[in-house]
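[step 3/7] fold_predict: job queued, chain A
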Amino acid sequence: MAYKITDDCTACGTCIDECPVEAITEGDIYKIDPDICTDCGSCADVCPVDAIEPE
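[step 4/7] structure written:
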């Protein structure tokens, strides 16, 4: 099960540096590639607006 980024994302960039497999891409709302995500939860742990949750 991969994580997903909700519409609450503020594109702050905090999560990108935390992803060990580089599954997150930038944009107005960041996106997580479910095929690459290893479900580690590192991104969700650091998101300041709680915009990342299990899919």
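[step 5/7] annotate
The chain has a mean pLDDT of 96.
The CA atoms of residues 8 and 49 lie 7 Å apart.
exit 0
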